[in-house]
Amino acid sequence: MKNENKFATKCIHAGIEPDASSGAIMTPIFQTSTYVQNAPGDHKGFEYARTHNPTRRTLETQLAALESGADAVCFSSGLAAMDAVLKLLKSGDEVIATNDLYGGSYRLITKIFDKFGIKSKFVSFNEIKTLEDNITSNTKLIWVETPTNPMLNIVDIKAVCELAKKHNIMTCVDNTFASPYLQRPIELGADLVLHSATKYLGGHSDVVHGCVITATQELSDQLHFVQNAAGAVPGPQDCFLVLRGLKTLHLRVQRACENAEKIAKYLKSNPMIDKVYWPGFEDNPYHEIAKKQMSGFGGMVSFDVKGGSLEDAHAILNNTKLFALAESLGGVESLIGHPSSMTHASIPREERLKVGLTDSLIRLSVGIEDADDLIKDLETAIKAVKKA
């Protein structure tokens, strides 16, 4: 039955029922590896914890509701989720992916699945014709990341999905940077939506988790088979932590968006900064698409130091106090990172430069602290460039 409640209410209530045995309002952590059966094949819907777990199932039900999907499947990490999606393909099939994407996604496609005969192309999705020109009879999956990591390009999800359906190609949208609070790709025509739930869904930097939400039950059944057969499942405590995080998703992402807007505007006005990548600026080439398919512009901001000096970038990275130098994103605390040496180091430098990912590019995951404090922190760090 379709859940008609608004998003904030879904974050608290969708798929959640008090525990039948105790009345506990929080979903229990079912820390068990197996389940007693009344007779062979006669059980309560759970046989073995790799296959099913009540805590995990509750989370999958809620994720499906938040993303307007038919079902969801949870995994031990975002890359494990992507691995399962790619396992829906066979040797000879081809993936077309955005040419600006997370380094781990690029590595998985090129270094692992290429060995099994699954080919790949990385192209700009800015023009639909460019994407269509690269489609062949072997293209079976279009991999979309939007906003992209780390350049924050915006892909027109609806246009890509319409093209994919025209050619009978499956689409998967990595929605990690936006979260379902800002963007719901299935409503725009996507077949699959992927999250590194480690990020905004968990939201507290204390769990590694991944999930795929499906538009149809058939795709869910296929992914549940892969999940059970390959075994990359999350533990029940991990699922509990994501369930806990989802209850404040709308509040956290809204605050992060508000803070990111203030920080992006500050950076744009700073003479020490060259380019600021944030789709909320009216002069950003992706602004209109972002307005059309997102309800906010996100908590991620990337920027380049004027002059493009790696040393200047390091001066900033090494002199923040509130922005912690770390990989990952989407937590309540603000993080600062250097994509070319951290999250995107697995992508060859020449490929990084093609999309504008310079050695001096800095990526911010803006948290929910006071925006004025965060701006002061960046201001102090940027002043360190002059002293370096």
Task: Give the secondary structure arrangement, pairings included.
Blueprint: H1 7-13, H2 54-66, E1 71-75, H3 78-86, E2 94-98, H4 103-112, E3 119-123, H5 128-134, E4 139-145, H6 157-166, E5 170-174, H7 179-182, E6 192-196, E7 210-214, H8 217-230, H9 236-246, H10 249-269, E8 273-277, H11 287-293, E9 300-305, H12 310-317, E10 324-325, E11 335-337, H13 349-354, E12 361-365, H14 371-387
| Count of helical stretches | 14
- Contiguous low-pLDDT stretches (5 residues minimum) are none
Could you say how many structural domains there are in total? 2
* The CATH architecture of the largest domain: 3-Layer(aba) Sandwich
What's the CATH H-level superfamily name of the largest domain? Type I PLP-dependent aspartate aminotransferase-like (Major domain)
- CATH topology heading of the largest domain: Aspartate Aminotransferase, domain 2
The CATH class designation of the largest domain is: Alpha Beta
Distance between the termini: 61 Å
Radius of gyration: 21 Å
- Decide which structural class fits the backbone: alpha/beta
Order of helices and strands: HHEHEHEHEHEHEEHHHEHEHEEHEH
Helix content: 25-40%
Number of strands: 12
- Report the principal-axis shape: globular
User: What would the average pLDDT be, to the nearest integer?
Assistant: 95
